[in-house]
Amino acid sequence: MEHITYIDRGKRKVMTVDEFMALDVSSDSDDGLDFDDFSDEDPTINPKDLEFSDSDSQPETTVKKVKNSSSIIEKQVHPSIAEAGQPTSSNTSQPTESNINQPTSSNKKTDTGKCQILWKKQSTKFSGEPFLFTGHNALPQSILQLSTPYQFFKYFFTDEIVSKIADETNLYSTQKNPNKPVDCIVYDIHKFIGICILSSLAPPTCVRDLWNDVYGIDLVKETMSQRHFEKLHSSLHFNDNAKTPDHQSPDHDKLYKIRPILDYLNQRCLSVPMSERLSIDEQMCATKARHHMKMYMKDKPHKWGYKLYVLSGDIGFTHKFEIYSGQENDPKFRRDGEPDIGASGNVVIRLSREIPRNQNYKLYFDRYYSSLNLSVYLFQQGIQCVGTIQRNRIPNCKFRNDQELKKEPRGFSEEFFTNFESVGISTVLYKDNSNVAFLSTFVGEMPNSEVRRFDRKKKQHIMFSPLGAEAPPRELETFRFRYPGGQRVLCTSGSVTYSSRSSVRPRRSFDCHPGYFVCNSSKICVEQRFICDDYKDCEDGSDEWNCIKVWFRKFKAGNFDIEDEPRSGRPTKVDCEELKQMIDQDRNVSTRTIALELDVCQKIIVNTLKHINVTFKFNRWVPHELTAEDKGKRKSACLALLRDQKKEKILDIIVTCYEKWV
Predict the structure, then answer these.
(1) What percent of the chain has pLDDT over 90?
(2) Is 538 helix (H, G, I), strand (E, B) or coil?
């Protein structure tokens, strides 16, 4: 058997002796040195500097540069050397199976970890005409003429989309049961949406409570019958089920059933001119439905729901959104010429497609999306960006570590600048309550800004001047306090939406538009307690908790009648004076006997006796309060027990072996 020896240098591909000897390596090196690139006598090559990742297995030539004091050594290594077992020129590449279906170079994901990025510590000022906003954000007259809420609603829900909903609803009802179609018209869809919006202001426990004879809403009853509403609710559709793509099909879309509505709403939202400052973040559509796309996000006002990626302005208006479905990184959602920079970065690329190019719009996002490749792409499209970033996404940047930053005062910051792919990028590390890193293409550390901070030692807020040692960089204040709060505005503005969540779950709230009814579980309890306190002396026994719950629902619906309707069954109230007289006549009577005589439930008798402080002891009903004689007996018994404790015990006596009696 032929003896085989392996040569390994750093992380290079392993080659046999025959493969190594077949290489075209002359005595004179191509770079002019007196030794070969693979020679052990080379004192300049550090094996740790020669790094190769799994992507080196592709048939592309990997170029690695190693610097020394006199020259730059450049070596080309082709990965097919270790696979073919024969000499292969570094300038040729054989077509393999791995590169047949590869996308073009414009769609490939750039690996910034391989790039030799040089960061220079400096304070950079971005100013001048290249960074001035040149777009137009004035509202058109068609929007300025809208004055009523119904007109704003009609601007987004036009007759075109409502007619589409009515047609698809009729089609689905016919497919489901041809004998009983819904026969829905556009006016029915308007009424259905109106009932949904109205019910979201004061959500009932059950939808049918809207048509209740006692605490129902007359406006809902006059608008649509309960049966017709439920038929529409069960048949409501937005797309043709018969044309749903198969799960194995490349055109499969998890949001196919609502895709027409999503596309149309995005189209109407994009018709509103964008402001200069835009932000991208996640938004939760709260729900308690059971669905595989429901997610949990602990940092959001609504923890459970469907996650949406939202592009919004600095005033909170949504210009574009998409629902997270797990298909965000699918190539079919990527257009020609758009790079693949990861799932999070691709979200920003899709949402920023309609942002006007080369007009210096400012885009803000957090560290989930930020990367060098994304910043370069946006800058090349004429969009400036800024956002927090994870430090492992900025390679070779020599920021101080957390241990070193602990020694620095609050407000310390440092900036590094680089020119990556002909794009100037600034990254700033700032120490506040925590260490925050920022990446931007239009703003840097200078100039500083004046901010308000709380001093724990002085127990008061302090304003830091621009020249102070703890003045934060402008980049931080621009990101945190001014513009990127579009999604936060959406979360707290109190937009009125129809929610399918049930009020029986604890810790839920309904934040409605100012002027409408606002309530949550804690406020409901407070209101019910107020009702109990106000009506606790009512003769009809209305202080019971279940009765108060019914009253509270009536009061929300505008019915302030506190009289209970007559109903069948045993009475739920007992006259306390009559009960006391029965006990005084016979102290040995049982609760069962009393319940049979008064024709009430035995449990009601027990609860009433507890209410009047009467209990059953020694086969007799006696009050809880002790008489003077009973108090004296108990006092004497306690004193006797205390005296017994002072007597000399047998274990306290020293016993010897000579004593017979102790």
Answers:
(1) 20
(2) coil
Taking CA atoms, 64 is separated from 15, 52, 72, 114, 348, in Å, by: 19, 9, 10, 9, 31
Instruction: Record the pTM.
Output: 0.57
What is the pLDDT confidence band of residue 622, given thresholds at 50, 70 and 90? low
What stretches of 406-485 show up as alpha helix (H) in DSSP? 474-477
SS3 285: strand
Distance CA 370, CA 278 (A): 15
**Domain-wise residue ranges, the chain:** 3-21+143-242, 273-464, 520-555, 576-612
b/e map 143-155, b = 16+ CB within 10 Å: eeeeeeeeeeeee
Cα dihedral 632, 637, 642, 644 in deg (nearest 10): 140
Task: Render pLDDT for 138-193 as a digit per residue (tens, 0 to 9).
Answer: 899 989 999 998 999 999 999 999 999 999 999 999 999 888 888 899 999 999 99
Amino acid at 420: F
Consecutive H or E run containing 365: strand 361-365
Phi (first) and psi of residue 461, to 5 degrees: -85, 140
Residue showing tokens 């999306």: 369
Phi, psi of 23 (to 5 degrees): -65, 145
Residue 358 to residue 351: CA distance in whole angstroms: 16
Token pair in block for residue 338: 């758009």
pLDDT of 282 over the 60 cut = yes
* Torsion angle in degrees (nearest 10) through CA of 186, 192, 193, 197: 160
> Is the pLDDT reported for residue 544 higher than 80?
no
**HSE-up (13 A, CA, CB side) for residue 395:** 10
Helices 372-380 and 343-351 pack at an angle, to 10 degrees, of 20
Phi and psi at residue 211, in whole multiples of 5°? -105, 15
Distance CA 365, CA 438 (A): 10
Which strand (E) or helix (H) includes residue 364? strand 361-365
How sure is the predictor about 312, in pLDDT bands with cuts at 50, 70 and 90?
A: very high
Report how far residue 7's alpha carbon sits from residue 493's, in angstroms, rounded to the nearest whole number. Answer: 66
Q: Are 347 and 521 in contact (CB under 8 A)?
A: no
Closest CA to 316 of 486, 123, 509: 486
Q: What is the mean pLDDT of residues 271-292?
A: 89
Place of tokens 């509202």: 139
At 114 the pLDDT is 53
How many Å separate Cα 108 from the centre of its chain?
Answer: 30
Of 40, 26, 117, 31, which Cα lies nearest the Cα of 68? 31
Tell me the average pLDDT across 28-42: 40
Predicted local distance difference test score (pLDDT) of residue 638? 86
The answer to whether the CB of 348 falls within 8 A of the CB of 369 is yes
Residue-wise pLDDT tens digits, 485-530 = 445 444 433 333 333 444 434 333 333 332 222 333 333 344 444 4
- pLDDT of amino acid 569: 60
Question: Mind giving me the DSSP string for 567-625?
Answer: -SSS-S---HHHHHHHHHH-TT--HHHHHHHHTS-HHHHHHHHHHTTEEEETTEEEESS
pLDDT one-digit tens code per residue, 212-247: 888 888 899 999 999 999 999 999 999 998 898 888
- Which string of b and e fits 158-167 if b means at least 16 CB within 10 Å? eeebbebbbe
638 by Cβ neighbours in 10 Å (0-12 / 13-18 / 19+) ranks as exposed
Alpha-carbon torsion (221, 224, 228, 234), positive or negative: negative
